[in-house]
Amino acid sequence: MNVQSSCPILPYPLAGSSDRKNLFQSPGTIFNISPAKIKAEMIKNIKIPDIISSRTEYKKKFSLCEMYRAFVLIPGAAAEMINNKRKKLIDKDFTERLQLAVTEVNGCAACSYAHTYLALKQGMSNAEINSFLSGDGNFFKPEEAKAIYFAQHFADTRGLPKKDAYESIINEYGVEKTRIILAAVQLMTAGNIYGIPYSALHSRFNGKPYKDSSLIYELGMQIAGFILLPMALFHGILRTITGFSNIRLDKGKYSVKNDGVKFYENS
Q1: 255 three-class SS
Q2: How many CB atoms sit inside 10 A of residue 141's CB?
Q3: How far is CA 43 from CA 113, 126, 134, 197, in A?
Q4: What angle in degrees, to the nearest 10, is found between the helix axes of 109-121 and 126-134?
Q5: Residue pLDDT tens, the chain, 267 long
Q6: Pairing with 122, which of 27, 161, 244, 250 sits 20 to 30 Å away (CA)?
Q7: Residue 52: other Cβ atoms inside 10 A
């Protein structure tokens, strides 16, 4: 059997198909291709929009305060994602599309690359992935559209969405699914805040420094991330154990109990 002619590996002909997903999940059973080679070829065929791969300026630039705030939310958000894995309320593809939408707004090249690989692994096509990374909406599913727009709004507001926007997601998906949607975008935001200066630093080492950046900022955010993460995670675990809500909105916070939502304005 001629593997190359019947199912050529370069370039991948199965992007986005069920066959490709089966091939990835059971590498070598049909064509005797090693898992390492499949992973290498998938990485080689990752394609992200030129506007991202050639970026030399920030789309969004975050502060240390914003980094710590995002890191503190990680334990609570991770707990929601673990709960979703058990209950299977939202599938992996939906979650990945939410996170790609956040990454598009924030403009993290490193996260775009990493999540493109994860999306390809789950069976999404390069065309669908690039659509989300470009923000054109061509592959939005009607039942997911409102959540995707919320994810973009969440990123636009730097992790502090409007009360009305959050309530609309609750009305559309219910409290439990909304918590998972929020958790997915919170985790992606935390990754973006760390990944954006890393992308700038990587670009600098490749001879293309970001126009509105500095080596001090890039290295400072990387070093601070290592220092702040353990403290923020401990802080976040304490908040989760003591029942503090992970829901943070513009000029206030939500307290969610059962199927009711009450909004408290900050004084």
Answers
A1: strand
A2: 11
A3: 9, 12, 20, 22
A4: 150
A5: 443 433 333 333 334 444 444 434 444 444 455 555 545 554 455 555 555 666 788 889 999 999 999 999 999 999 999 999 999 999 988 898 898 889 888 988 877 767 666 666 666 666 766 666 666 666 667 888 899 999 999 999 999 999 999 999 999 999 999 999 999 999 999 999 999 999 999 889 989 999 889 999 999 999 999 999 999 999 999 999 998 989 998 875 554 443 445 554 443
A6: 161
A7: 21
Gap between the Cα atoms of 262 and 253, Å rounded: 9
Nearest 5°: CA angle at 167, between 162 and 171?
155
- The total number of residues written for the chain in this structure: 267
Give the helix/strand (H/E) hosting 232.
helix 215-241
What domains, with CATH codes, occur in the chain? 3-38 (no CATH), 63-259 (1.20.1290.10)
Please, how many CA atoms are within 13 Å of residue 29, restricted to the half-sphere of its CB?
Answer: 7
Tokens 């990485």, located at residue: 43
Cα–Cα distance for residue pair 127/116, rounded to 1 Å: 11
Single-letter code of the amino acid located at 81? M
